[in-house]
Amino acid sequence: MSALTKVRPWIAAILGLAITGLGHLYLRRWRRAAMWVLLTLAVSALFVPPEALESLSNAGTMPPSEFVSVLTELLPILAVSLVSVLDAFFIGLQQAAEAQAEADRDAAEADDSAAAVSDPNSDAVTCPECGREVDADLDFCHWCTTRLDEPTDD
């Protein structure tokens, strides 16, 4: 697994903390990102009083006790955002696991194809370096440019 694949869930979570849905956009889950943004807007319209949003814009001049009361009124939006961050993180973990499984599957297929014995009556030769079939008339692999050894006639 590459280092970026291991870090992707964390990057998605951090981006989701910054802006709801941004982590999902990073993971290329367009509809899911739109769903989280729309859900956040719907929750803010249905459950948050407009005065709380207006007073939040004046947060720099607000006393701490009033800020706490405004923050409690914004809890529905914060809850939706937190669940969005967790969703982005777990989707990133799922994608990392799928990428690891695919890499393992590709490695197993490469090992199987390298271990396969070629038909002696066939005109194709298998490259010892990359495992791909090469025309027997060539002295090198046209895929990886490895020089092929001449077969000895004993």
What attributes does this structure have?
single chain, 154 residues, mainly alpha, two-stranded antiparallel ribbon, 2 strands, rod-shaped
Q: Explain this structure to me?
A:
The protein has 154 residues and is mostly helical. Helix content is 64%, strand content 4%. It is built from six helices and two strands, in the order H-H-H-H-H-H-E-E. It has helices spanning 3-18, 22-26, 30-47, 50-57, 64-73, 75-115, and strands at residues 124-126, 133-135. A two-stranded antiparallel sheet has the order 1-2. It starts with a helix and ends in a 19-residue tail after the last strand.
Write the layout of secondary structure elements.
Blueprint: H1 3-18, H2 22-26, H3 30-47, H4 50-57, H5 64-73, H6 75-115, E1 124-126, E2 133-135
Antiparallel strand pairs: 1-2
Strand order of the largest sheet: 1-2
What count of helical segments does DSSP give?
Answer: 6
- Helix percent band: 55-70%
Task: Report the portion of residues in β strands.
Answer: under 5%
Which residues form runs of ≥5 with pLDDT under 50?
A: none
How many whole angstroms does the radius of gyration measure? 28 Å
Report the structural category: mainly alpha
Order of helices and strands: HHHHHHEE
Largest sheet: 2 strands, antiparallel
Number of DSSP-assigned strands: 2
Mean pLDDT: 84
Question: Quick one: overall form?
Answer: rod-shaped
Kindly report how far apart the N and C termini lie.
45 Å
Short structural description:
This protein has 154 residues and is mainly alpha-helical. The chain has helices at 3-18, 22-26, 30-47, 50-57, 64-73, 75-115, and strands at residues 124-126, 133-135. It is 64% helix and 4% strand.
